[in-house]
Model the fold of this input.
Amino acid sequence: MTTGRWVFVTNGAGSHYQFAIALHEANMLEALVNSWYSKLDHPLMRGLSPLLPQTVMTILRKRHTPLLPHSKVVAYPHEFILGSMIRGLQPGADTRLGRRAGTLARERGAGILAANYYAHSAFTAHRDQKGKAYLMYTAHPQEYVKVLREEILLVPDARESLEQEPELEAKSKRFDELAEAPLMADLCIVPSSYVGRTLVENGVSADRIVVIPHGVDLDDFYPAPEPPADPFRVLFVGQLIQRKGLSYLLEAWKRLALPGAELVLVGRGPQDDNLLRQYAGQYRLTGSLNSRALMREMFQRCHLCVVPSLIEGFGMVYLESMASGTPVIGTVNSGAADVVTEGADGFVVQIRDIDALMEKIRWSYEHRKELTEMRAAARRKAESLTWSAVRSQIARSIREWEGRDFRPVARKAGMRD
Done:
């Protein structure tokens, strides 16, 4: 598998373009194929930017990185409109974007690195050329279906939000494509050991998998000079839905009834209002915090961050919290086990384990001195997991695989039950 140059395809600004930046820094990036990308370093945009309102510039900056020259980006804005603004057309937009990237890579004699939702069409368009790398942000779709269907039976009141997850919404042909894509790849890059295990359980050889946890920006997230003041405050950050394990945290908090303590929910994206109503009075809801500065301040004001996700590729919130000096409680199904040292900078529990959540939260409530020591340890751990270090690992892993003469035999993935 020898290419030297790679086309990377993903929609949106996932991980803020870190994989594209990694390839560019290593002089390996042929192009980033994306839907909407703000080419703020283009001469035309440099002249136009001072005339635009700050609100517009804030939006544009979210789809741009100064670490990637505009000449390396091939964007298709109409796919952003079709895929992101018209619900129901997302799979088609993803397929077209992947196909464009695979064709571009084939025409330029480059390898193709594709994020999971674009991989099947990208690999198909790339045809039989060598150099197919698969970037898996989430667990294998079969694992998603298993966990989510179990959860619908366990918490039927959360059925509505659970059934809106892409893997359950996907039609049979689309689901089979998502399941087959990792079998088509020479190399699978995953953000956690948990994701890697779900690929192995669904037919991918372990020797094709490289685990590279995500990183964190230490300039955006850092501790306050002093530990947080009372009251004891526990923080949840994420979509307020059952896939994030929300009912288990709310139930644990209700049973604990800790005097003078506060549970703060910071929502990002969808929320399950029916579930939240059942625990009214148990929490304070802040709504979304749309800047990193506001999010950092929230981490700094809380003693503990708890996100007991049922299934997750990698919980970025864990590293953001730890970089801010706040210990975390995560689950084995969220990548927490790859970055958290049990009892030193946080805790890892099994999914759906209310008793374990209660035990760890109560311990933190009763051991403030030890928790303060854990804050320093959490920051030290985050300092070893910067995006710069992660980018070096990405480039190194791909270079090691480029020299291999390796071709997997794609198998037809099994249909979901």
